[in-house]
Specification:
- By secondary structure, the protein is α/β, with parallel strands linked by helices.
- The protein has one domain (9-131): Rossmann fold (3-Layer(aba) Sandwich), CATH 3.40.50.2300.
- It has helices at 17-29, 40-48, 67-77, 94-102, 116-131, and strands at residues 9-13, 33-37, 55-58, 84-89, 107-110.
- It has a five-stranded parallel β-sheet with strand order 2-1-3-4-5, sandwiched between helices.
- Helix 1 (17-29) links the parallel strand 1 (9-13) and strand 2.
- Helix 2 (40-48) packs parallel to helix 3 (67-77).
- The radius of gyration is 13 Å and the shape is globular.
- It starts with 8 loop residues before the first strand and ends with a helix.
């Protein structure tokens, strides 16, 4: 089961360890291979080390490098192995959503208005729409 090529790899980036653990469990239970990072810097280091996620689930409010900067970084430095980018944040203002999507995110989910199961389902929906777009 380890390194199963049929598994979709997701990189969850959030500085809140509780949320990282909770979303990791939900995505693992749904059959995803889960990689985690607790900062934008840590995510970049993992990408530089060769991690190639199919999906990035990125929080916005993080120290040092916020999620918007991380999305820009992924787009600029790792476009060749760019997966689906979904921002998962409590920043739900129209400007925040527009900024995230404008930077190249494929989806934007507001944490406060989605249960972990809904987040998994929304990511699946965004992935399915992208595959057939």
């Amino acid at each position: 089961m380890e390194n199963d090529p049929t598994k979709i790899k997701i990189l969850i980036v959030d500085d809140d360890k509780f949320l990282v653990d909770m979303y990791s469990l939900k995505f693992s239970e749904s059959g995803y291979e889960v990689e985690t990072a607790q900062s934008g810097d840590e995510a970049v280091k993992k990408l530089e080390a060769g991690v190639k996620p199919d999906i990035y689930l990125v929080d916005v409010v993080m120290p040092v490098m916020d999620g918007f900067e991380l999305v820009e970084n992924i787009k600029q430095k790792f476009d060749g192995n760019r997966g689906l980018i979904v921002i998962l944040s409590n920043l739900g203002q129209k400007e925040d959503v527009e900024k995230g999507l404008g930077l190249g995110a494929d989806g934007y989910i507001v944490k406060a208005s989605a249960t972990p199961t809904e987040v998994v389902n929304k990511v699946k929906e965004i992935l399915a729409n992208r595959k057939y777009a």
